[in-house]
Amino acid sequence: MAEVITMPRLSDTMTEGKVAKWHKKVGDKVKEGDILAEIETDKAVQDFESEVEGTLLYVGVEEGSAAAVDLVLAIIGNEGEDISGLTGGAAAPSAASEDKKEEPKTESNTTATEETSAEVPAGVEVITMPRLSDTMTEGKVAKWHKNVGDTVKEGDLLAEIETDKAVQDFESEFNGILLKQGVEEGGAAPVDTVLAIIGPEGTDVSAVGAPKAAAKSTDKPAEQKSETKEEEKSVASTENSSSERVAISPLAKKMAQEKGVDINSVQGSGENGRIVKKDIENYQPSAKPASSAPTASPAAQVALSFVQGEDTETPNSQVRNIIAKRLAESKFSAPHYYLMVEINMDKAIEARKEINSLPDTKISFNDMIIKATAVALRKHPQVNSSWAGDKVIHRGNINVGVAVAIPDGLVVPVLKNTDQMNYTQISAAVKDMAGRAKSKGLKANEMEGSTFSISNLGMFGIETFTSIINQPNAAILSVGAIIEKPIVKNGQIVVGNIMKLSLACDHRVVDGATGAQFLQTLKTYLESPLTLLL
After folding, report:
1. Quick one: a GO cellular component term (predicted)?
2. What are residue 476's phi and psi, to 5 degrees?
C-alpha cells in the first residue's frame, strides 16, 4: 500500500521547507535509510531519509520549491500502483512541475530571476547567494573552490560561504563551466543576488546580473579575473581537501558519537562513499599514521605576519562581526553579576584515572565538568532559563553550549540533552564538534538551542576569569586550570589540586542565592564524583 510522505518539521520554528535537491526521481527504487531529498529549513539544509521501501511514485514539491509543513512531499508504494486518490489537490503534481520548468521566464518569476531578466542565455544557470541561516541577510565568500573556466559537476564544492553564524560549504546543483563569479573571494553580497553563473563553455554572460548585483561583485572584467584565477589555481587545489565534509547518515553519526568513533577514520560503503550504520558497526580502529609537519596555530600565524614598525589591517569576518554585536548586546542589556568558588579536584582526578583505565575510554576533566553541570542544572531549573521581556522561559531540555576558539573568534557548538549523555558520549561529541568547528565544518543548527554555556581556559594555565553571557542563556560557567596549592585538610596543611569556577548570571533571571545554590551542587558533584550516580 502506498505511503504518503509529508514535509517534515525539522526545527521548532519551521513552518515550511524548500526542496534543495531530490536524490531520487519518480520511478526510482527507494530503500529504508536512502536519502530522499535535501530539505532547506529556516536554519539549515538537512538530509531527509526515507523510512519506507518501495518505488517513488509521486513528487509533490519540485526541486527548488517550498511547501508548508505536513503537505504532501512524496508518495512511495508498489510500482504501477494507482495513487490518484492520494494526490488530489494536496500539491502540484510532478508532471505539472516539469511543464512549469519548460515555460519561458515571465515578469512573474522570482526576484532572483528578475535581476537577470531576459538576458540569461539558453542553458545558463544563475546561482544566487543562498540564505543559510534564519538571521542571514548577506554572505561572504570565504573561499572559491572553482575558478572561472573550470568544469563544474553537480555536487562539486563551489565555494565556502561565511554567514553570520559559521562558514558552510556550498555545493553546485548544476553541471557546466563556471562562467562568472558574482562575488570576489573575501567579498560579501546580499542574499539572493548573483553569486555565480554556470553554463556551456564560451557563452557570453557579461550582461547577466547587471546592474542590480554589480554593487557587491568585483569590478574586474571576466577575462582579467580568469587570468588572475588561473595563477591561483594550483594553490587553491591543494587547499580543497582540508575542508571537505564527511558524508554520513544521521543514524550512523549518532552511533559514532555513542561509541566514540572518529568519523574521519571510517571508510563509507554507501552511495558516493557515504558512511552508513553498518560501517560504524563493523569499524575496527587502526593505528594512526605519523602526522606530517604541524600547522602553525592562529597565534603563530599572526606572529609570522608581524612586521616591525609597520601597522597592518585585517578585515573583520562575518563571524567576528556577529560575535562583537551579540556580546555587546549581552553585556549592556543583561545585568551581569559573578559568583566564584574553589573546587578540590583530588577525587575527580582519581575518578578520571580509574575511568580512563577502562578499554577504549578516554575522558577529559572538561567532559566531567560538562556532565556535572548538566546534572546540576536539572536540580536548579531557574539557572536553565531565559529572559523574554515580560516573562521567564524555563527550558525543558538541558542543552549545554561549549565555547570553542577558532581563528575568527569563538563559536559555541551545542550538546543537545546533555544531562542524558554519559561521559563517553560527551567526550566523542565535544571532540567531533570542536574538530569541525576549527575546520569550519559545523552546521548552523549545531550552534543553536543552548540553554547554558561553558567556557574553559584551564588548558592555557588561566586560574580564574569571567565570561559574557551567551544570550538567550541566563548564565555561563568559566572554568580555570587545576593548580597544586597548599590547603587545610583535617587541621593539617597539605598539597591539594584546586580549580576555580566563575559563574556569570543574568540578575533578571537568576538571583544571587539561586546561583550560589547551583554552584554548591556543582561543587558537591565534582568533589565527590560518586554523587552523580545518586
Report:
1. pyruvate dehydrogenase complex
2. -145, 140
The Cα 447–Cα 449 span in angstroms is: 7
- 292: cell is 606530517
- List Cβ neighbours of 462 (8 Å cut-off, separation of 6 or more): 480, 481
Q: Is 390 a catalytic residue?
A: no
How far is the CA of 447 from the CAs of 411, 416, 452, in angstroms? 8, 10, 12
Domain 112-237 class in CATH: mainly beta
Is 463 within 8 Å of 484 (Cβ atoms)?
no
**Closest by Cα among 45, 39, 232, 240 to 158:** 240
* CA–CA dist 506, 469 (Å, integer): 8
CA dihedral 521, 370, 487, 352 (to 10 degrees): 120
Is 145 an annotated catalytic residue? no
CA distances to 38, 58, 195 from 8, rounded to whole Å, are 11, 17, 29
- The Cβ of residue 275 has, within 10 Å, a number of other Cβ atoms equal to 23
The predicted model scores a pTM of 0.51
Instruction: State in words which class domain 3-102 has.
Output: mainly beta
Domain spans, the chain: 3-102, 112-237, 250-281, 318-533
Question: 3-state class of 221 per DSSP?
Answer: coil
pLDDT in tens, 163-218: 766 778 888 888 999 988 989 998 888 988 889 999 998 888 877 765 443 333 34
The pLDDT score that the predictor gives to residue 414 is 95
Section 84-111 average pLDDT:
46
The two domains 3-102 and 250-281 share their CATH topology (first three levels equal) = no
* 312-340 pLDDT per residue, tens: 887 877 667 777 888 888 888 899 999 99
Task: Give me 46's grid cell.
Answer: 538537512
Give the pLDDT confidence of 333-346 residue by residue, as tens digits: 899 999 999 999 99
The catalytic residue among 28, 70, 204, 511 is 511
250-281: CATH architecture? Irregular (4.10)
Residue 211: how many CB atoms within 10 A of its CB?
8
Give the pLDDT score at 452.
Answer: 97
pLDDT reported for residue 374? 97
Comparing CA positions, the residue from 56, 230, 166, 105 lying closest to residue 407 is 166
Name residue 350's beta-bridge partners.
Answer: none
Dihedral of alpha carbons 306, 311, 317, 323, sign: positive
Phi/psi at 169 (nearest 5 deg)? Answer: -70, 140
Three-class SS of residue 197?
A: strand
Residue length of the chain: 534
Task: Check pLDDT > 90 for residue 368.
Answer: yes
The CA distance from 390 to 307, in Å, is: 53
Q: Which of 501, 176, 155, 112 is nearest to 343 (CA)?
A: 501
